[in-house]
Specification:
With about 80 residues, the protein is of the alpha+beta class. It contains three helices and four strands. A four-stranded mixed β-sheet has the order 2-1-4-3.
């Protein structure tokens, strides 16, 4: 992960934290710092971001799920 990408992710996660929006990593509640670290060291895959919304489209949570190398290729082709 490049420096600019890390900084952008950090800023985004801080905004959601300040709003009290839960952050999830592989289905478990976590901290912004743990998500940043996981995204930095991810090998053999990537993390897919999923915005959890209510019926009105308001963001209720932000989930990062690991997509292995094979699964990631499905999304990029």
């Amino acid at each position: 992960m490049k420096k600019k990408e890390r900084q952008r992710l950090h800023r985004e996660l801080q905004i959601y934290c300040k709003k009290g929006i839960p952050l999830l990593l592989n289905g478990k509640q976590t901290t912004a710092k743990q998500i940043e670290k996981a995204c930095q060291i991810a090998e053999m895959g990537e993390y897919m971001r999923d915005y959890i919304q209510d019926e009105q489209g308001k963001i209720q949570g932000l989930s990062f799920d690991f997509i292995g190398e094979t699964g990631f290729q499905l999304y990029t082709k």
